[in-house]
From TrEMBL:
<dbReference type="GO" id="GO:0006183">
    <property type="term" value="P:GTP biosynthetic process"/>
</dbReference>
<dbReference type="GO" id="GO:0005524">
    <property type="term" value="F:ATP binding"/>
</dbReference>
<feature type="active site" description="Pros-phosphohistidine intermediate">
    <location>
        <position position="115"/>
    </location>
</feature>
<protein>
    <recommendedName>
        <fullName>Nucleoside diphosphate kinase</fullName>
        <ecNumber>2.7.4.6</ecNumber>
    </recommendedName>
</protein>
<dbReference type="GO" id="GO:0006241">
    <property type="term" value="P:CTP biosynthetic process"/>
</dbReference>
<feature type="binding site">
    <location>
        <position position="57"/>
    </location>
    <ligand>
        <name>ATP</name>
    </ligand>
</feature>
<keyword id="KW-0808">Transferase</keyword>
<dbReference type="GO" id="GO:0004550">
    <property type="term" value="F:nucleoside diphosphate kinase activity"/>
</dbReference>
<feature type="binding site">
    <location>
        <position position="102"/>
    </location>
    <ligand>
        <name>ATP</name>
    </ligand>
</feature>
<keyword id="KW-0418">Kinase</keyword>
<feature type="binding site">
    <location>
        <position position="112"/>
    </location>
    <ligand>
        <name>ATP</name>
    </ligand>
</feature>
<keyword id="KW-0547">Nucleotide-binding</keyword>
<feature type="binding site">
    <location>
        <position position="9"/>
    </location>
    <ligand>
        <name>ATP</name>
    </ligand>
</feature>
<feature type="binding site">
    <location>
        <position position="85"/>
    </location>
    <ligand>
        <name>ATP</name>
    </ligand>
</feature>
<comment type="similarity">
    <text>Belongs to the NDK family.</text>
</comment>
<dbReference type="GO" id="GO:0006228">
    <property type="term" value="P:UTP biosynthetic process"/>
</dbReference>
<feature type="binding site">
    <location>
        <position position="91"/>
    </location>
    <ligand>
        <name>ATP</name>
    </ligand>
</feature>
Amino acid sequence: TERTYIMIKPDGVQRGHVGEIISRFEKKGMVLKALKTYQCPKAVAEEHYKDLSSKPFFGDLVNYICSGPVVAMIWEGPGVVKSARLLIGATNPLESAPGTIRGDLAVEVGRNVIHGSDSVESAEREIELWFGDKAGV
Ligand code: ATP
Ligand code: MG
């Protein structure tokens, strides 16, 4: 079954949105396969977002992801990669539709609450990066 990597970013954790976000994925019918809180070292955030390393906001992005604990999750279900991205909404919360997680909970692109893998290949890479061999999933 298809899997995706979902991460509640430090702002989402600090603002107390963990329960609401998990509830939205559960209501959709996705299956939670793994979950942990994690204070990530910069090297992991840099590896996760390596495709964006040439962007001017890359340093701020890495600092943001490492600014507090994240909630790292693996969710499973049919078409879950795309389905999760639809629940999450557009990258810039000012363009995310109301009803999406970012559309409802965020206003800043640099504080947009949640990450979701953008392809099946990215999902498998990110699951390996954040959970490695020890996740048992
Ligand atoms: P994510 O990968 O976090 O799920 P995304 O796939 O919607 O987000 P990406 O293009 O992969 O968008 O960008 C990764 C993250 O980089 C964004 O979620 C956002 O936090 C940050 N980011 C993207 N564009 C900008 C920007 N113009 N200014 C500041 N931060 C940005
Ligand atoms: Mg992305």
